[in-house]
Amino acid sequence: MLRIANAVLTRLPEPLRALALRHHEPLKFAVVGGTAFLVDNAVFYGLKLTVLEPKPVTAKIIAVLVATIVSYVLNREWSFRTRGGRERRHEAALFFLVSGFGLVLSSAPLWISRYVFRLETPDVSLVTQEIADFVSAQVVGTLIAMVFRFWAFRKWVFPDERARPGSVRLAPTPGSTDEAA
To answer: Nearest-CA neighbor of 156 among 111, 108, 90?
Structure first.
């Protein structure tokens, strides 16, 4: 992943490259989030359209749990690679606790859509139900949980910015004086 990120950086025009280097942590978090989002969608729809068809909230919870495991590994080893300050077991426990709260935040819009607004068949068409499920679970829920997780990971899970200074980071561009590289 580091090679891909460096290849993309070298192709960016200078103003964008400097901006990317300055905001490398949120950008890496967004890439990890995008990957977890794809995992979440694949698992959610794989379950929702097969074995958990009558239980979309259960399918969503399982999907978020699988995506959270992927997210922990990628965030620990890439997004927050230079952060830390906690023993690994404590860090992992906090990560999953924060992610558990994120799970509630990401599932709540789907629950509200289905069981408060009754956007489910036979009250609405199947197309309306599926659009409502996607928007509430995969867009609204994911965005709410993403903002919360980024803040909470930096505050509680990986609090010390330079806890692992020997870690590999994005390579600086020639002539760059930005230490964030």
So the answer is: 90
Give the C-alpha separation, 7 to 171, whole Å: 10
Each residue of 43-56: pLDDT tens digit?
A: 999 999 999 998 98
Burial class (CB in 10 A: 0-12, 13-18, 19+), 36: buried
Low-confidence ranges of the chain (pLDDT < 70): 1-2, 5-6, 85, 162-181
- Structure token digits, residue 77: 């080893």
Alpha-carbon span 54 to 43, nearest angstrom: 15
The residue behind tokens 């867009």 is 139
The DSSP code sequence of 50-114 is TTTTT-HHHHHHHHHHHHHHHHHHHIIIIITTT-B-S-HHHHHHHHHHHHHHHHHHHHHHHHIII
